[in-house]
């Protein structure tokens, strides 16, 4: 019975709480991302500051590029451009 422990709790208790832990992180992450996006959108729409249009269009461009394209680009650069990309050097 001693080998069935994870930390100080039995493994069965830990597995039962996985859903609650996942739901908590999902709700907090979703609410946090929504609040941050709402504040940023309000700032872009109401306030005029230097380079606001540049930041707006950079944010819009980042949203239009799917993350899978960036991963594929990273893998290509990592394989064929040794040392030219900082992340490519760190990953090796």
Structure, explained:
This protein has 92 residues and is mainly alpha-helical. The chain has two domains: 1-47; 50-92, no CATH class. It is 74% helix and 4% strand. The protein has five helices and two strands; from the N terminus they run E-E-H-H-H-H-H. It has helices at 11-16, 18-46, 52-64, 67-80, 86-91; strands at 5-6, 9-10. A two-stranded antiparallel ribbon has the order 1-2. Strand 1 (5-6) and strand 2 form a beta hairpin. The longest helix has 29 residues, at 18-46.
Entry keywords:
92 residues, mainly alpha, 2 domains, 5 helices, 4% strand, flat
Secondary structure layout:
Layout: E1 5-6, E2 9-10, H1 11-16, H2 18-46, H3 52-64, H4 67-80, H5 86-91
Antiparallel strand pairs: 1-2
Q: Specify the overall morphology.
A: flat
**Mean residue pLDDT:** 76
Which consecutive residue ranges, at least 5 long each, have pLDDT under 50? none
- Order the strands across the largest sheet as they lie in space: 1-2
Number of domains: 2
Q: How would you classify the helix and strand content by structural class?
A: mainly alpha
What's the main sheet like?
2 strands, antiparallel
H-E string: EEHHHHH
Q: How much of the residues is beta strand, in percent?
A: under 5%
- The amount of helix comes to over 70%
Radius of gyration, in Å, reads 22 Å
Assembly form of the protein: single chain
